[in-house]
């Protein structure tokens, strides 16, 4: 036994030895191949390459393309390129860096921030790459440095086109900004196409349209002397500049919306229901994107990042809030479409709803109840009990299906980077995320747009636009067309989908939403306009849960726990040209806080009126304002 | 048959003379000497490539010191312990690869690092050792050569991390990890018929692989055949590196005198393309000297492997040696324009630390299986 065991082991050894020999021979052969190749280059082609090397005074230089500009719908320039002179230092060529900086500071102004940024960029980059030291040199400073140029071989003056955002505070969230390409992006981009380009879109349109805006790099072959100075250009292929973007966005409306929202945290999204074009997309508070382009200082960045009002956060695109009662028209439409309700069928509201066999009382916002309500009144007065009952009869699966058609719970597909899709609760979601079964009570809460249900202001605006245009869901688009120059516009088409809704049902919903504003009992009656008719729906999103026996006392609740105020609307009812969603964080009531902002936005768009200055005034208390 | 006991006696241990300090330190003197020689030679070339910057030289020296330290440390750990570590190391490596991919998925871009908070770690490096360890352990469990099922399992154990790494996307490392597994299998006695079959299959599947490749990867292959088609991108690297090597001639332009290198025509001259600096400045003789040292290291590694008592040690040492060879071949092949541009550094010479530590840790493993004498076993 032992003998055969040894035999086997020995067989293995011999097998290995044979294989090791084969590997050794293979390795030798392959390395000989490399040697043969090198010998071929160094002996046979030595003459050829030697000449090439001597003539290798020809250097290939990239010609970076000019980034496309961004214009609003009226042709107002929102993102520009401004020439800027930058003093750079190539660390590899600087023998004595502290000495060099000392010398330079005698010629030009160098402050602490310049040195700090320089040190940071120097650590990140290769020592052979020129690192910006001072930005925005004046003509005089250029002259002074150039005069002493021979003393500083490591110093160069570079002309850059620097991205600027003239109306930055108003466009920061929607346009985003460009900034230096970071390590992660280096791995992702086509390195050849970005030679000579330092900037890349980081957010918003600048990121989502990066490819078109950037263009294609060109190059030129230049003859240089032994020290690397350019003598002449031999051949060049010009770069293809990036295409300009023309937006649906109306900067005038955008500014007016921002003004209407001034002093509040929140978002306004306005969409043209005929095209899906985003007319305004405002998130307040905002920030100035211009410092980000050249690298914002750590302190300034920390101040923005740690601000309790999070100005960097795009509430319109990434803010996810319970839609509250603004979801009710959609749910009522679902009820009509599935035949669970008819427009005229009434339901009695006693101020609370109980599921069969359960003691929990799902309360209405109005303590005494609304009495007998039909679909129209349920929307006009925002009766919760009606919608508890409707949601209960629809069931979560049908609710989920129907609301999903309006892109609740998934992204709208807008042409902006970083959109979030909200959350539309479902049985499957609850099982997957919370590992629990679905409770019937949760369906009721979805019915009034609370609980785990979350939507972004953009989702609400796009869904409202779909009702306004009679049941077509248009993917929102901020950009209208690409402009390749010489007036060649390539329109940007957004996918549109007919939701297959019964026109009569949509008509009934629009009628009910119109009464929300027009009817003396409507929750948004005070924004009624004499000039045009508005259809809308108020909403209030709970931030703070009220116990079974307590009543909600607004004044007692700390400001940051107060409800979010929401309002969705479109106008004119007869031929809708604008759909709006307004969200005010901790604003309280949708009717008194959010609705007037929507009215101001619509006045601006439809009548050309600027919002009056008194929109900031404290909303008056009104108990019946509801919901 | 009379020869057998005699042979076994020879294998029992190293000659008494070398039982000196080096063996008690669990080092193989010829291998250590060759590795030091290669590193020293590499430093010389590097010092020129970095324009004699003392700071960067110091940084590289520090890394070399660290890497040799790791090698010595690894060599102290007996193979039976490594055998036990094979599975945990492999599993941990694969899990981390998945984590890296998941993080990258969220960050929407290439991702190779795992940020552990206190340090950034590249799990693909771990698998350059983890895959040969795992395969050697697995294949040595039963008599060799492996049958069909074991071969298949071993192939899967190799393919999983290789594919994960290729998805990062990091073609160079995926190639190294994949070839590590392939070589261990080959050394374990993979049948020639299967090898022929696989070669035929690979030829047939090449078009499929091509369609799976990313644009920039395709570009690198295309420009190999026609560098002038993309003179600004990848082609530029190949054109300039061929000029550098070719203009060096037999004797070279002299140390520190390469115009291609120092007038900045040659990109990445201190990292992946340092072989071109060697070719330009020290010529064909310089290249032959370095390749000679490397060849010695490979032969020594294979010799050590074949002297091993047990199958685990043989496969591990042999596999790791051949990974080293792949490093060498892919890098020099790429720089001289034989192979597409794949991000693989020249072992022991290129500026940078991660791969150096892995390579020398691998040699630590080879020395560990060589110098620890354990009870007979498979």
Number of separate helices of chain B: 15
Strand content of chain B: under 5%
Helix percent band of chain A: 25-40%
Query: Using only CA atoms, what is the Rg of chain A?
Result: 33 Å
Q: What is the arithmetic mean of pLDDT of chain B?
A: 84
What is the count of β-strands of chain A?
Answer: 23
- The number of helices of chain A is 21
Q: Give the largest interface.
A: A-B, 53 and 65 residues
Distance between the termini of chain B: 22 Å
The major pleated sheet of chain A works out as: 7 strands, mixed
Name of the level-1 CATH class of the largest domain in chain A: Alpha Beta
- Structurally, the number of domains of chain A stands at 2
User: Which structural class is indicated by helix and strand composition of chain A?
Assistant: alpha+beta
- Gyration radius from CA atoms of chain B, angstroms: 21 Å
Let me know the average pLDDT of chain A. 86
Shape of chain A: globular
Task: Describe what is shown at a glance.
The complex is a heterodimer of chains A (627) and B (378). With 627 residues, chain A is an alpha+beta fold.
Protein model, in words:
The complex is a heterodimer of chains A (627) and B (378). Chain A is α+β, with helices and mostly antiparallel strands and 627 residues long. Chain A has two domains: 60-247, Penicillin-binding protein 2a (Domain 2), CATH 3.90.1310.10; 251-293 and 313-625, Beta-lactamase, CATH 3.40.710. In chain A, the strands form seven sheets. In chain A, strands 2, 3, 4, 5, 10, 18 and 19 form a seven-stranded mixed β-sheet that branches. Chain A is globular. Chain B has 378 residues and is mostly helical. Chain B has a two-stranded antiparallel sheet. Mean pLDDT of chain B is 84; it is low at 1-14. Chains A and B meet through helix 1, helix 2, strand 1 and helix 7 of A and helix 8, helix 11, helix 13 and helix 14 of B.
